[in-house]
Design a protein that fits this description.
Two copies of one chain form a homodimer. Chain A has about 325 residues and is α/β, with parallel strands linked by helices. Chain A has three domains: about 40 residues, no CATH class; about 210 residues, 3-Layer(aba) Sandwich (Rossmann fold), CATH 3.40.50.300; about 70 residues, no CATH class. Chain A contains 16 helices and seven strands. In chain A, helix 11 links the parallel strand 6 and strand 7. Chain A is globular and about 65 Å long.
Chain lengths: ~325, ~325
């Protein structure tokens, strides 16, 4: 089936077509680029919500509770589940989750697990692209859920308009989260499993840590207690997320953020294309092996070798950007 | 002080000069590039050993025991300690470690903690550069020690000729390590804290997991039990690491690895320079804002905008690689 008809079918509501579009986009191949070009004008309407936190805090259960609540309110929901911590297994475990069953008969919910392999431009850009497809397909709210607390996770949830950090009662987690830098990016905090341990103390602790960061502007991140398994407090947490979105809109920040994100998106594509173009020219140029050998022998350093290759590739007749000319050779 | 005299002093054995050289290299500025150029011909003699594993398994204590043992054998030791899991705090905690005191009076040991910020080309390349400086400065054995089990850690320890994975007794860790993909890269395994829990079972478990991976070639990774705090088994573990190195040398693999690494190093510099050049031209070109606005409004997609910018920058009179000419404009 052609990309055009796939796009048409996905927009008409076919989950199979949508799944295939996402695969094309995820793989980063030229067809995926065509899909993104076709869908771009339709994107930008969904609420994007990033959800992260340490493993085992109940993020999936929370997102499920929020999804159920949003569905009752008539909203459609997309979920992108990303596991950056498993470079080799590719986050396959996420695909097995029970909840895939729960919502499988509801056409208003679309769940996608993302493997970590093969995202040449990085996991966060690939996540942003997948979220964009769901956005263009008309899902009202899109959750970007990621397991863990490293830089990769920070980047991934940064795709959201609002970033939610989920923790559980206990001193360690909040401090760990702070160490990993995720306290800084949280715009709403959830203390899940609040029926276990001293949840009030954890809330107090998070609130204190938030006060240590002076760069937050006018928004005070709410800290909400939940027991996601019995949906206790989950509506309050969702209300807190929605309040953050209203705050962004009221202060013109949502627009500014999205504008900045588009700008960053263009630069990311520029970087990736400039890099691919240079590598492609150099691989075709055939001098890499010789220079690598000289670098290995210590006769040349990598930086000088790279300069030689770049200068040569810019003068190459294969360079679409700069056909050869006498002027080039003199530069 | 000039870079040249810093290099001279570092090679003459000044730890202060060496520390300053490493800072220059770590920051990735042009002076750092000059340092790497100057030192490149001297590098390539050290044994590089990558050490990783989950937090709290005793990696530092192990590396300390190995360092003490190597020192008794008359070898000098460099230690690069990297903490990729703390994007914001920058791994500062590693800098505080007690062992900095232990070896501070021994000129045969140099310890460097690496922060995670500001490494534009990535943490693993920066680690490789710092290891190269220590190598050129004449340290016989260089440990690259990193906390955690994500993709960043896999990349960082991949700088080593031999990769050592440290675990402790208990089923969870080995399975976690496998999920995180580090079992695949381990060439020697240490089960530390073997006086606690069922160490033999963990050894059996690791051995079994290793059998699941058929792509290992002729090398069978040894699995060694240690109690690093009392130096039990640590010499056996070191012997296992040295056996791996002899295996590499005997099969011509060390040379092949290092050749491949130089090649990858050149391509990395090419990528980074091509990217920087494109971004620089585009920022100076002044059309980014206009195109970003059109992308934000949905009139243009990021990929097409990037193509426009790249085509324009290639034709720009500021491009050192491709001065303007009529031929260029027709392309």
């Amino acid at each position: 089936m052609s990309t055009d008809s796939l796009v048409e079918e996905a927009l008409a509501g076919s989950p199979q077509a949508l799944a295939r579009l996402i695969s094309l986009v995820e793989d980063g191949d030229p067809e995926g680029q065509a899909v993104l070009r076709a869908l771009h004008p339709r994107a930008g309407r969904a609420d994007l919500i990033g959800v992260t936190g340490p493993p085992g805090v109940g993020k999936s259960t929370l997102v499920d509770a929020w999804t159920a609540s949003l569905r009752r309110g008539g909203k459609t929901v997309g979920i992108v589940a990303v596991d950056p911590s498993s470079p080799f297994t590719g986050g396959a475990l996420l695909g097995d989750r029970v909840r895939m069953q729960d919502h499988s008969t509801d056409p208003g919910v679309f769940i996608r697990s993302m493997a970590t392999r093969g995202h040449l431009g990085g996991l966060a850009p690939a996540t942003a692209d997948v979220a964009k497809v769901l956005d263009a397909a008309g899902y009202d709210v899109i959750f970007i859920e990621t397991v863990g607390t490293g830089q990769a996770e920070v980047d991934v949830v940064g795709v959201g308009d609002t970033v939610v950090i989920v923790l559980v009662p206990g001193l360690g987690d909040a401090v760990q989260a702070m160490k990993a830098g995720i306290m800084e990016i949280g715009e709403a905090f959830v203390v899940n499993k609040a029926d276990h341990g001293d949840a009030d103390r954890t809330v107090a602790e998070i609130t204190m840590l938030l006060h240590l960061n002076p760069d937050r502007g006018d928004w005070r991140p709410p800290v909400v207690k939940t027991v996601a398994t019995s949906a206790q407090g989950t509506d309050d947490a969702l209300a807190a997320i929605e309040a953050h979105r209203r705050f962004l809109v009221a202060n013109g920040l949502l627009e500014r953020r999205r504008r900045d994100r588009r700008r960053a998106e263009i630069l990311r594509v520029v970087e990736s294309k400039a890099r691919d173009r240079a590598l492609d020219l150099i691989r075709r140029g055939g001098r890499l092996d010789e220079l690598a050998e000289r670098v290995y022998r210590g006769e040349l350093d990598p930086s000088t070798a790279a300069d030689e290759l770049l200068t040569e590739s810019a003068q190459s007749p294969q360079s679409a950007q700069s056909p050869p000319s006498d002027a080039n050779r003199q530069s």
